[in-house]
Write a structure and sequence with these properties.
It contains eleven helices and two strands; from the N terminus they run ααβααααβααααα. The longest helix is centred in the first third of the chain and has 32 residues. The chain starts with a helix and ends in a 5-residue tail after the last helix. The mean pLDDT is 86.
Length: 254
């Protein structure tokens, strides 16, 4: 997918979700607009600055392994895209579980969870180093197993925009069908401040992985808890040094 088209789709989706958040909010709250916009810029800069090195490493290792053991491009497009999506979603799930279990990864990931105004802009509230870590873990692992062509990657990139929707502060859930697909209500429980919601709903797209690992928590009717951590970001500089400060203080818990 052309970068300009992808950026246009992303911008249109975010604008639409921001409008919906005002019309149909899931929880009464105030988002950290300034910090979230700063986080978005830092994340994009992280992608650009780190993009070359991880890409070279991944490309070299994949090429050495023969470019992927299973050629998805030889299959019907829908099947190949579905296999790539499930494989990537499993990778995202395992990486996310690691972020909550390993202290130094949590020190970075806690920036994402620190937002007390969970909303569409929280989707890009990540520590700037995370794109590189995912490049040499999730993407590398999946690329070593599966070879995907441009069409499959474009489909996955488009579907991945749903990541913005699940973070939106919308009164939207799938009720008894919560196990089929992530939703704003389902994911809000993962960001909840309430202890009864801890260690639940890690899924990126497919809650089946939560079900298989015992982390599935179906939201109750009208259940839209407050989000965030005790410690919050107070400036863009905090975002740049967030894990260093938190590891030093040992004040954040998963």
């Amino acid at each position: 997918m052309a970068p300009f088209l992808f950026l246009a789709l992303t911008s249109a989706l975010v604008a639409g979700l921001l409008a919906l958040e005002r019309l149909w909010p899931g929880a009464a709250q105030r988002g950290e607009w300034a910090n979230n916009v700063a986080a978005f810029v830092l994340t994009m800069l992280g992608h650009m600055i780190q993009g070359v090195f991880p890409a070279v490493v991944v490309a070299g290792l994949v090429a050495a392994a023969g470019g992927g053991l299973v050629d998805l491009s030889a299959m019907p497009l829908a099947l190949g895209a579905a296999i790539w999506l499930v494989a990537m979603d499993l990778g995202e799930y395992l990486f996310h579980r690691a972020q909550h279990a390993i202290p130094w990864l949590w020190a970075m990931h806690s920036l994402h969870h620190s937002d007390r105004g969970l909303g569409v802009l929280t989707a890009q509230r990540h520590f700037w180093l995370e794109p590189a870590l995912k490049s040499v873990s999730i993407w590398l692992a999946v690329a070593l197993v599966f070879k995907a062509d441009a069409a499959i990657l474009a489909i996955y990139s488009s579907i991945s925009l749903y990541h913005f929707a699940i973070h939106a502060n919308l009164r939207l859930g799938f009720g008894p069908f919560a196990w089929l697909l992530n939703s704003p209500q389902y994911h809000r429980l993962h960001h909840s401040r309430e202890a009864r919601h801890y260690n639940a709903n890690y899924a990126a797209l497919l809650p089946i992985f939560d079900i298989l690992t015992g982390a599935y928590r179906r939201p109750g009717p009208g259940e839209f808890p407050a989000s965030g951590l005790e410690e919050v970001v107070v400036s863009p500089l905090d975002m740049v040094t967030w894990p260093i400060r938190k590891m030093a203080r040992r004040t954040i818990t998963a």
